[in-house]
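To whoever is on call:

I kicked off a structure prediction for a single chain this morning and the downstream step that reads the tokens threw a length-mismatch warning. I double-checked the sequence; it's 273 residues and nothing unusual in it as far as I can see. Pasting both halves so you can look.
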Amino acid sequence: MIITRAQRVGLSVYAGLVLLVFYFPIFCLAAASFSKKRYFSFPYPWADVTTRWYVEAASSAQVAQFVGVSLRIAALTTILSLLIGFFASLAYARYAWRGRRTFQRLVLLPLFFPQSVLGLALLMWFNFLGVKPSWWTAVIAHTVWIAPIATLIMSIRAYGLDPSLEEAARDMGASRWQILRWITIPLMAPGIVSAACFSILLSWGNFALSLFTTGADSSLPEWLYARMTSGYQPIIPAVGTLSVAAAIVVVLAGAAVLGIRRRFAARRLAAAV
């Protein structure tokens, strides 16, 4: 499509405004974390720039404790979500069975529940069962909300798989485990990596479900909120900036894994030809 110069300028301005709205709050967070002042102000002179709050955050035992709780929750939630999502996506994308359509509709329904309502419902359920809320009950809560997302991501990949590859392996005498190990999982790998990245990031930054279900084991988002409401300190934006940096590292790691896998696949194909 041919567009005029004015239209190109308009699209560039529009894209710039969208990116500004998306990333300016993160920029303010990072800017506040490098200020010597104990209250937020911007801009500030170069003499007020400091990394003191990052040093305090890195050496704080309290911050390490909350980071550890969030990491445990995110790691276990990711493992459970991938297990549930992998088999659920294959179940409703690859096979015809009774109740499949109902399963397709209901398995994604928790996505649309308000997280505060879902957290309250799970808290009432845990109380009914006599379970004391802790970090592992938060794992269950996060899994209830994130597993449908992992299922949705992996099902997109599952719908694109060629079933003739598995049928050919079966005709050649491969067992079900061998087909899963050497055919299905490698073909599903891009969906699995993407679902893992989404699961880690959604669990790592989740506040609403954690607030209802962690009990005394508060996660990092809960600590950030509690510290902001009880009194602002510059270590708070420093920890928040480090949390965002960790999320960016996860995204880059996922992209690197997919890139390496694609490169190895291209080399194997070239060697076979």
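Update from on-call: the warning came from a stale cache, not from the record. Cleared it. Sanity check on the structure: The first helix runs from residue 5 to 33.
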